[in-house]
């Protein structure tokens, strides 16, 4: 096999699957454990949201360091820290869970950026969207079996199996990760140049301040770069729906007759995986904005949120239908926007700017737990999911309006060409 399905890339996808296996279990265990200990939805949401909120903060820095030192060096350091974080879950309570989530968030910022930038740099343009889609697919694969494992561990009441699973995942991830190869490493000449630059750098840290200033200028493009700001806003709004489902479905499902949170999460993950496999070649990979495609994908997330919110009265069938729609939305939206940005962003700053975009996705998922937790405490889970649907509907309108403006611009250019003729 060649391209995105060659052996070096398959090894990276296996590493991705192992790395995210722990989170598929923790997404179920942490809310259930918090409820058992009497924690409010706000507290549970903060613990769940701390993971990706930390990831968001460190993501731009991760992109910058990976471009400077190469993905392999960064990968080996983060896998060590991730193993320590997983060990914390084996002997601590909610306070330790919070610290472990923060450490995991730091690791995930560097892990996802290292692999995605490595894939982007190593694959030709025509295979880029498939590579990103396969990476994202493998990050969701654990969601098929992880929730069932978590529910099984919880129902037995013996948390020693949970501790063993965290240790096993840490060991396997490290074994695969330390032997992986990602893209091209910096050339020796570049390393020599870096060493010379480091030697010439003033002892007062002027070079470090210059790098920090450069990162802050890049962050300003969240507002000034129309491509980045539009994609970031759409991803932020829709990710609130994704985050609210992850954080609170394990607690909401018992309110729905004959519904299971594990089955919901399994259906959602299975749909994500299936859609990524079957539709990966349909994801645009030409650098053109597809407003109707993006807007329609976001509307699927809106309908999914409404279905989940109504299922307390309508029943489990609508609940599971929401899982199908949300799975399709998750499968398509992220790789579509990431691939589009990989074409339209300036190459010199692409790593940092894509990091900022992914940080918007992380922030949205975090807000789905941190902000929607108090909303659920003040109202109900159903009302919370209706509020999420409103946010998603606003994002869909923005995506579709962008499509209309682009179409109008294209018509104006066509008229100008005809007039010149």
Automatic annotation (TrEMBL):
Region spans: Disordered: 186-210
UniProt cross-references to InterPro entries, sorted A to Z: MFS (IPR011701), MFS_dom (IPR020846), MFS_Exporter (IPR052714), MFS_trans_sf (IPR036259)
Location in or out of the cell: Cell membrane
Chief location bin: membrane
Entry's Gene Ontology cellular component terms: plasma membrane
NCBIfam families (alphabetical): opine_export_Sa
Protein name: MFS transporter
């Amino acid at each position: 096999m060649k391209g995105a399905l060659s052996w070096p890339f398959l090894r990276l996808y296996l590493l991705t699957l192992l790395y995210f296996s722990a989170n598929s279990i923790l997404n179920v265990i942490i809310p259930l454990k918090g409820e058992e200990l009497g924690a409010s939805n706000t507290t549970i949401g903060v613990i769940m949201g701390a993971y990706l909120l930390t990831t968001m903060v460190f993501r731009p820095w991760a992109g910058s360091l990976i471009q400077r030192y190469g993905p392999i060096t960064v990968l080996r350091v983060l896998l060590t820290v991730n193993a320590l974080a997983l060990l914390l879950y084996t002997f601590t309570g909610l306070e330790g869970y919070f610290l472990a989530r923060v450490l995991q968030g730091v690791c995930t910022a560097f892990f996802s950026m290292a692999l995605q930038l490595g894939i982007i740099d190593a694959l030709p343009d025509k295979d880029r969207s498939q590579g990103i889609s396969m990476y994202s697919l493998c990050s969701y694969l654990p969601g098929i079996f992880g929730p069932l494992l978590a529910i099984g561990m919880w129902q037995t009441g013996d948390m020693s199996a949970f501790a063993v699973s965290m240790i096993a995942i840490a060991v396997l991830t490290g074994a695969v990760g330390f032997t992986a190869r990602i893209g091209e490493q910096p050339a020796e000449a570049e390393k020599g140049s870096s060493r010379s630059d480091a030697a010439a750098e003033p002892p007062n840290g002027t070079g470090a301040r210059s790098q920090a200033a450069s990162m802050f200028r890049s962050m300003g493009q969240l507002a000034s770069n129309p491509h980045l700001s539009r994609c970031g806003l759409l991803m932020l709004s829709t990710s609130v729906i994704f985050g609210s489902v992850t954080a609170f479905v394990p607690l909401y499902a018992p309110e729905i007759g004959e519904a299971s949170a594990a089955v919901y999460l399994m259906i959602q993950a299975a749909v994500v995986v299936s859609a990524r496999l079957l539709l990966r070649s349909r994801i645009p990979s030409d650098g053109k904005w597809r407003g109707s495609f993006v807007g329609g994908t976001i509307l699927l997330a809106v309908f999914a949120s409404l279905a989940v919110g109504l299922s307390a009265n309508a029943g489990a069938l609508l609940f599971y239908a929401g899982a199908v729609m949300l799975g399709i939305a998750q499968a398509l939206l992220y790789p579509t926007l990431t691939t589009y940005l990989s074409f339209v962003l300036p190459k010199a700053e692409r790593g940092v700017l894509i990091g900022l975009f992914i940080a918007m996705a992380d922030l949205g998922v975090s807000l789905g737990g941190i902000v929607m937790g108090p909303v659920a405490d003040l109202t109900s889970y159903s009302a919370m999911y209706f509020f999420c649907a409103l946010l998603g509907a606003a994002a869909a309108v923005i995506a579709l309006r962008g499509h209309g403006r682009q179409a109008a611009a294209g018509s104006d250019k066509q008229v100008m060409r005809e007039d010149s003729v």
